[in-house]
Amino acid sequence: MHQPLFGGWIEVVCGPMFAGKTEEIIRRIRRLEYAKKNVLVFKPTIDDRYSSSEIVSHNKTKAKSININKAIEILDYIKEGVDAVVIDEAQFLDNDVIWVSETLADRGIRVIIGGLDRDFRGEPFGPMPQLLAIAEFVQKLTAVCVVTGQPATRTQRLINGKPASYNDPIVLVGASEAYEPRSRDSHEVRNKPKHDE
Ligand SMILES: Nc1ncnc2c1ncn2[C@@H]1O[C@H](COP(=O)(O)OP(=O)(O)O)[C@@H](O)[C@H]1O
Ligand SMILES: Cc1cn([C@H]2C[C@H](O)[C@@H](COP(=O)(O)O)O2)c(=O)[nH]c1=O
Ligand SMILES: [Zn+2]
Questions:
Q1: Strand-pair category, 9-15 with 162-163
Q2: What is the pLDDT of residues 59-69, one digit of tens each?
Q3: Ligand 2 atom nearest residue 121's Cα
Q4: Of the residues 26, 58, 158, 182, which should be mutated to test ligand 1's pocket, given the most ligand atoms within 8 Å of the CB?
């Protein structure tokens, strides 16, 4: 595999839905392209929301991507001369994405990861906590809360207009028909267990 002169690293862009994670990742991809770098973009197959062959932001900026079902599949695409690997919607991937990212960065590749830090319950989502821990660089973005107008750090899931229940399935691919960005004080989860005092 590619042995570059300079070290690689891991960057994570996280935050709630509508915070601009995908836009920010596409901005980084474009800059790498201007620099004539060889970039590979991946997303989990489950994310077929706007396109099955592109990462697409809520305001429809897009970049070509490769679908993967498991993180380890990324390694099949790594050939001599790959400069950067981008993974969007990393919250949906298995925990292998952690060592795969480390392996790529150790081999001199810039790894750019986008994903939700929290699920609709407000709890850490999939491999994101570990990815945040191992990353050299982290950008936590916020959206605008549709209730308070304050920075939104959480994602509200609404089912038939009502807050989803804590026990609902964690994975539900969707956009504004089921989700909206909310600040801490306006985020609601039905049946959420209370912590002991
Ligand atoms: N309440 C909101 N706050 C911020 N952006 C919003 C909001 N509702 C819709 N948007 C749109 O979402 C875009 C960000 O989309 P995207 O990059 O796909 O976000 P993410 O990947 O974090 O879900 C914004 O540029 C804006 O056009
Ligand atoms: C909060 C939450 C979200 N999802 C899904 C919904 C979307 O398909 C993606 C997030 O996409 P974005 O680029 O961040 O807008 O994740 C989910 O399955 N479960 C959740 O709890
Ligand atoms: Zn996104």
A1: unpaired
A2: 999 999 999 99
A3: 21
A4: 58
pLDDT value, residue 194: 87
Tokens of 26: 């596409």
Residue indicated by tokens 């929301």: 49
The correct CATH number of 9-141 out of 3.40.50.2300, 3.10.180.10, 3.40.50.300, 3.30.750.24 is 3.40.50.300
Q: Which residue has a Cα nearest atom 15 of ligand 2?
A: 17
What ipTM, to 2 d.p.? Answer: 0.99
Question: Is 24 marked active-site?
Answer: no
3-state SS assignment for residue 126: coil
**Which residue of the set 89, 136, 177, 180 is catalytic?**
89
Annotated binding site for ATP: 15-22, 88-91
- Ligand 2 centroid from CA 47, angstroms: 9
